[in-house]
Specification:
This protein is 53% helix and 0% strand. The longest helix is centred in the middle third of the chain and has 23 residues, at 107-129. It is mainly α and 189 residues long. Helix 1 (4-22) packs parallel to helix 4 (107-129) and helix 2 packs antiparallel against helix 4. InterPro entries: CHP03086, DinB/YfiT-like, Maleyloyr_isom, MDMPI_metal-binding. This is TIGR03086 family protein. Residues 12-126 form the Mycothiol-dependent maleylpyruvate isomerase metal-binding domain.
Length: 189
């Protein structure tokens, strides 16, 4: 079976897993567009997201307070496996029903949150490591939906920075990145 969310995740995961696989060890200390994260921190956050959202799907308790270092052993392969397990966890239609007991938000909203995390942090990782990144156009409407409904809360909670101004000619993805507080023209220094 599949759901709208697992289908969207299925579109986002391959690109992000490819980016993770392409990170070289010497890039782990590089800056990212997400100011509080170096590449290592961003990768560990992505691991936390794909693992914790498996728990969210199961309506289990989730601890976001500690981000363990997951970059050990065959971590690139481990990420791909964990991300696929997350997609599978969200493929049961019942997962989308109701409100998350741990996070207090509708399960559907949390599913969109995962999509946005992958789309935006995929861009962060690509730019920090000099890798190409193409966002599947089907991911832009759900990203916009989430940012429209949860962007202000995300800024209040510190998950997003203040919106950045972009020119009228900016493409849709650049506009969405700007809503998260990212400068779409950011370049690794």
């Amino acid at each position: 079976m599949s759901t709208e969310i697992s289908d969207l995740l299925g579109r986002a995961v391959p690109a992000v897993s490819a980016l993770v696989a392409g990170v070289r060890d010497e890039q782990l200390g590089h800056a990212t567009p997400c100011a509080e994260f170096k590449v290592r921190d961003l990768l560990n956050h992505l691991f936390q997201v794909v693992r914790n959202f498996q728990l969210v799907a199961a309506r289990a308790e989730v601890d976001w307070s500690v981000t363990p270092d997951s970059l050990t052993g065959a971590w690139r392969d481990d990420f791909a496996a964990e991300a696929e397990a997350m997609v599978a966890a969200w493929s049961d239609p019942g997962v989308l029903d109701g409100v998350s007991p741990g996070m207090g938000l509708p399960q559907h909203t949390l599913g969109l949150m995962m999509v946005v995390d992958l789309v935006v942090h995929g861009w962060d990782l690509a730019h920090a490591t000099g890798q190409p990144y193409e966002v599947d156009p089907a991911l832009l409407p759900p990203t916009a939906e989430f940012l429209d409904s949860m962007g202000d809360m995300g800024r209040q909670m510190g998950a997003f920075g203040p919106a950045v101004s972009v020119g009228a000619g900016a493409d849709r993805f650049a506009q969405l990145l700007a809503l998260t507080g990212r400068d779409p023209s950011w370049q690794a220094g």
